[in-house]
Specification:
Distance between the termini of chain B: 74 Å
Number of strands of chain A: 11
Number of helices of chain B: 14
Order of helices and strands of chain B: EHHEHEHEHEHEHEHEHHHHHH
Strand order of the largest sheet of chain B: 1-2-3-4-5-6-7-8
CATH class of the largest domain in chain B: Alpha Beta
Number of helices of chain A: 9
Radius of gyration of chain A: 19 Å
CATH topology of the largest domain in chain B: TIM Barrel
CATH class of the largest domain in chain A: Alpha Beta
Largest sheet of chain B: 8 strands, parallel, barrel
CATH superfamily of the largest domain in chain B: Aldolase class I
Oligomer: heterodimer
Shape of chain B: globular
Number of domains of chain B: 2
Helix content of chain A: 25-40%
CATH architecture of the largest domain in chain A: 3-Layer(aba) Sandwich
Radius of gyration of chain B: 19 Å
CATH architecture of the largest domain in chain B: Alpha-Beta Barrel
Shape of chain A: globular
Largest sheet of chain A: 6 strands, mixed
Structural class of chain A: alpha/beta
Chain lengths: 311, 343
């Protein structure tokens, strides 16, 4: 499947380097995604220079270039901003280009790679939520599938200041709202909250994510812990640096959550070490986003190929 | 009445909330607001200790939804303005809109002292609602005077009406406060404020020094109720200011009555500088971590002091309360391993 990346910033450039490795997101097979171009708007950007040095086309005409070359493009990864995506997403759809959206624009259904990867394979546009959402929703889902009901879940994401770009900083409410919604819609929590903290420490800290989950009376704690360990392995299939920093713990309350008073909570302390493809390993927030996008793009590509073969 | 030389902002109902694990009830709010208002305090801040939207697993759930308490505060105040605090990343611009409807007219937008560009969205929303917007740079000991000026100028450019620095770890000695306030007063067009904590027993003297360097807004809490070893006690600040001949516009005796008769009876413990409190100031650790670290120490049978020192080493910032559990678990594992080796 012929694809392009729009946006030559940190995310777009990191994704380019991942796709050029030729392996799929699991690292064991060959990727069905053939990268045609990294498309930017600034001819002098570091990302476009990097593309050219790697032998990839690096036009700077932005979305228009994609539309002009629509006949030769099957899929686009949007690594620009919510604003740019919202302005052009209909044009991609009309041009029959599948869009995998890495911005918080949320025009298409949300996908968390480890949870609902195969749910929206026919959608013309899928949204990748947020980096914190990709990191924590799987664990919220891991808890909710192990108990009868999950009245409340919360995530706290701490990222190194250096890896939080101007988009995140100016629209921090978008991050928390979108992430919080994913904890409910995909994670299975009845109520939720998301928190993001920026830490300027030098050397920069690894991305940290913590999930708190409310456990109602009668929850099977062993089943919860087992489900969490299993989910760690599932996410590691496409983000090798994803790990439980400490074993998950069940703490005793009571806790007066927005979903009601519960006797216990599960605490899941996660760390995401990036693969170091473009930015250094501390920028795990970038890595989990690009790795998840690659996995989603590949799942769509396989699905479409199957459909063609079947037709 | 003569014009006060500085504006006193009381944060008993916001920062004080940490010390009672966010368990304020409506009747407490009514009595404290009435007491502060009658004593002549100009601005009363109220919210969860970690700002609007702070009620959470990570920071502790409020006993009563903060907006109910804020609504009561707005109803009973006569002269004092009601203020709130918001940390972008925890609270939302929508929260500002809601409390503005309730009558809150001052919004303090708080952020770690190197991350001012995160406040643009919320300062602008506060201004568009017609609120006074105060930029609030936390953990100010972690940035240089020049660095703080750079951050404060950003907030000023977004429209902030006043810029505060907060010694959130109670870690600064007087010279450090003087240099920072002096640099800010020189560089900014808007007034400067200081929010002090008492972990090194410097809160009142640092506040007076800040005034002498040109700060025209100072924070206190009744009986020092607050995160860590507590805040600058409002009634002591008023009394000491009066000794210095600094006009506060508030009645120190009325504030003493409030502290003694209303606030102290609410306190699960008096604000003292014990070992843990002192370590916060000594190691430069965010004051709100104190009680969370105490609970984690009990839960995992490790030392609270060790937890706080490790948090200092990791350069953890305000809001990262989840790291307290992380550190406690690691300490517990290390102890278990050490015992295993000995056996």
């Amino acid at each position: 499947m012929r694809c392009v990346i729009l946006g030559s910033g940190n995310i777009g450039t990191d994704l380019m380097i991942k796709l050029l490795k030729g392996t799929d997101a699991s690292g064991s097979g060959t990727t069905p995604l053939e990268l045609v171009a990294l498309v930017g708007i600034d001819p002098d950007s570091d990302g476009l220079a990097r593309a050219k040095s790697l032998g990839i086309d690096g036009p700077h005409e932005g979305p228009q270039w994609i539309l002009d070359n629509a006949d030769d493009i099957d899929m686009m990864f949007d690594a620009t901003s919510a604003y740019v995506h919202a302005r052009h997403y209909k044009e991609y759809e009309e041009a029959n280009i599948i869009a995998v959206d890495l911005t918080p624009a949320a025009r298409g259904p949300r996908v968390i790679a480890a949870v609902n990867l195969t749910e929206h394979l026919d959608a013309p546009n899928t949204n990748m939520v947020t980096c914190g959402g990709q990191a924590t929703t799987p664990m919220v889902y891991a808890v909710s599938r192990a108990i009868d009901r999950l009245p409340y879940a919360e995530m706290v994401s701490t990222v190194a200041s250096k890896s939080a770009g101007p988009g995140t900083r100016q629209n921090i409410d978008e991050f928390t709202k979108t992430t919080s919604m994913a904890l409910r819609e995909i994670g299975g929590a009845e109520t939720s909250k998301a928190i993001i903290i920026l830490n300027p420490a030098e050397p920069p800290i690894m991305m940290r994510n913590t999930v708190f989950a409310a456990l109602p009376e009668g929850s099977d704690h062993d089943a919860v812990l087992e489900s969490i360990f299993a989910m760690e392995k599932d996410v590691q299939k496409y983000v090798p640096g994803y790990r439980l920093k400490n074993p998950p713990v069940i703490e005793e309350g009571p806790f007066n959550t927005p979903g009601g008073v519960v006797p216990h909570r599960a605490v899941v302390l996660l760390e995401v070490k990036g693969a170091g493809d473009y930015l250094p390993p501390y920028a795990g927030n970038l890595d989990i986003m690009t790795a998840a996008a690659q996995r989603v793009g590949e799942a769509i590509a396989y699905h479409r190929a199957d459909q063609k073969a079947g037709a | 009445m003569t014009t006060p030389d500085y504006r006193l902002i009381d944060s008993t109902l916001r920062d004080g909330s940490h010390a009672i694990s966010h368990q304020y009830y409506a009747e407490d709010v009514v009595r404290i607001v009435q007491g502060l208002d009658a004593a002549g305090v100009q601005v009363i801040e109220i919210a969860h200790g970690d700002g609007l939207g702070g009620s959470s697993f990570n920071y502790g759930f409020s006993a009563v939804p903060e907006k109910e308490l804020i609504a009561r505060a707005c109803e009973v105040t006569t002269n004092a303005k009601i203020a709130c605090l918001l940390l972008p990343g925890i609270g939302l611009a929508d929260d500002l809109r809601e409390v503005n409807e309730l009558g809150v007219s001052v919004a303090r937008i708080a952020v770690h002292c190197t991350e001012a560009d995160v406040t643009e969205q919320h300062i602008k929303v506060a201004k568009s609602l017609g609120m006074e917007a105060i930029g609030f740079l936390m953990m100010a000991h972690m940035n240089s005077p020049e660095g703080l000026v750079e951050q404060a100028l950003l907030m000023q450019s977004y429209g902030a009406d006043t810029i505060y620095i907060a010694d959130s770890a109670g870690a600064m000695i007087t010279e450090e406060v003087r240099r920072r306030v002096n640099a800010l007063v020189e560089a900014l067009e808007v007034p400067v404020g200081v929010h002090a904590h008492n972990n090194l027993a410097m809160a009142v003297s640092n506040s007076i020094a800040a005034y002498q360097e040109g700060a025209r807004n100072l924070d206190g809490t009744s009986a020092g109720l607050g995160a860590g070893a507590g805040n600058c006690p409002t009634e002591i600040l008023a009394a000491v200011s009066s000794k210095y001949g600094i006009e506060t516009g508030v009645d120190p005796l009325a504030l003493m009555d409030l502290a003694e008769e209303v606030v102290r009876p609410l306190m699960p413990r008096q604000q003292v500088i014990d070992r843990a409190g002192l370590i916060l100031g000594y190691a430069g650790v965010y004051g709100s971590f104190l009680l969370h670290a105490e609970r984690a120490a009990e839960r995992y049978n490790v030392s609270q002091a060790e937890i706080l020192l490790e948090l200092g080493r990791r350069q953890v910032v305000g809001g990262q309360e989840d790291m307290i559990i992380d550190v406690a678990l690691e300490l517990a594992r290390k102890h278990a391993e050490a015992e295993g080796t000995q056996a």
